[in-house]
Design goal:
It is built from 16 helices and five strands. It is of the alpha+beta class.
Length: 352
């Protein structure tokens, strides 16, 4: 039996050339057939080499079969009647991977004979990992480090798939359920793309999204929407989200000036507070500060992180200057340390 006959009778994956070029979800372990035509030979060769590496490819041209390799394929493969039969390859030999490959690897790790650590994990045991990975991705974005972003995006995705596979084993939901809900959400909330609405700018698009989300979630009131904001968000981010929901109901200052006056008022109340009220007034002061930053379109969580990083950087500079004197920092007065701080600050600004 010829290879063509085997392919036509066997469990081969079948694609027309255009679909082959646009998909990444075929199972690379099993061979596939591609019907040529309508795309360039270069595109087909690149796709094969990119996804499968140096695997053997059989060109079926008319009644003949010719063994060749992807990098050696000629222009004649553009003929509509030609077929390519591409041998499968092991995951460990792939040059590039798609989402289906990733899920397959994760399933292998979670299998009964897989990795002992991966098999032992639960939703609860790895929950903190997602938070850590998300912050590492945010750091990569802040550093404008594309290589770091590439890695951290993958780490965040791994956490989501990890939880999905745990849920699948628990009988809660599977990857198809997860992706179906995600795709359904994207379609239903983009009513200006997949529906009758029309957005002329990003603000209008966001308004349509929020309106669709409100209907989807069946919020009974703004207070109900506030109550559904995740309680384990970082406190500054949580406060910002609650304030933005209040703004949608018209409960907001007309300008930053009103928020700034409220901040000054809360600081005055904190100074006058005593005992148990100090804690309460301190929270009010922070909440008011978040309100002010919101008017300046500043993310308070990220602003505070940057301020902390800046403080640490400058403190380290002061520490180095003190070390050169051979004395401990405790021997210096606050005024002396502040003078060193100002030197470090000036040098830093001069280098900006």
């Amino acid at each position: 039996m010829s290879k063509l006959q085997q392919a036509l009778l066997g469990s081969y994956q079948r694609y027309i050339a255009a679909d082959f070029l646009s998909t990444e979800f075929f199972d690379r372990r099993h061979p596939l057939i591609v019907q040529c035509g309508g795309v360039s030979a270069y595109a087909l060769k690149t796709k094969i080499a990119d996804c499968f590496g140096d695997v053997e490819v059989t060109l079926i041209a008319g009644d003949t079969e010719r063994q060749t390799r992807a990098v050696e394929l000629g222009e004649e493969i553009e003929n509509e009647g030609n077929l390519l039969i591409i041998d499968g390859c092991a995951l460990t030999e792939c040059k590039r991977f798609g989402f289906a490959d990733f899920v397959q690897i994760m399933r292998r790790l979670r299998a009964d004979d897989g990795c002992e650590w991966d098999r032992a994990q639960t939703h609860e045991s790895i929950r903190i990992n997602l938070i850590e990975e998300a912050y590492e991705l945010v750091e990569a974005i802040d550093l404008a480090n594309a290589e770091m972003m590439r890695e951290e995006c993958g780490d965040v995705l791994m956490q989501a798939v990890f939880h999905t596979l745990i849920a699948e084993k628990n009988g809660e939901f599977d990857s198809y359920d997860m992706l179906t809900e995600l795709c359904r959400k994207l379609i239903d909330r983009h009513t200006h793309i997949f529906g009758a609405n029309h957005a002329n700018n990003p603000d209008e698009a966001l308004a349509f999204w929020n309106e669709a989300k409100k209907k989807e979630k069946k919020y009974k009131s703004t207070a109900d929407a506030m109550d559904r904001v995740p309680k384990n968000l970082p406190a500054l981010l949580y406060a910002e989200k609650v304030q933005k929901l209040a703004k949608k109901s018209g409960f907001d200052w007309d300008s930053a000036a009103g928020a700034e006056d409220k901040l000054a008022e809360e600081l005055k109340e904190l100074r006058a507070a005593d005992g148990d009220h100090t804690f309460e007034e301190a929270g009010d002061l922070l909440f008011a500060a978040v309100n002010v930053l919101r008017f300046y379109h500043v993310e308070p969580e990220m602003a505070l992180r940057e301020a902390s990083a800046k403080f640490m950087r400058r403190f380290e500079g002061v520490e180095r200057m003190v070390a050169k004197t051979g004395k401990p920092m405790t021997d210096f007065t606050l005024e002396q340390l502040d003078a060193l701080w100002n030197k470090v600050k000036a040098a830093e600004k001069a280098n900006d």
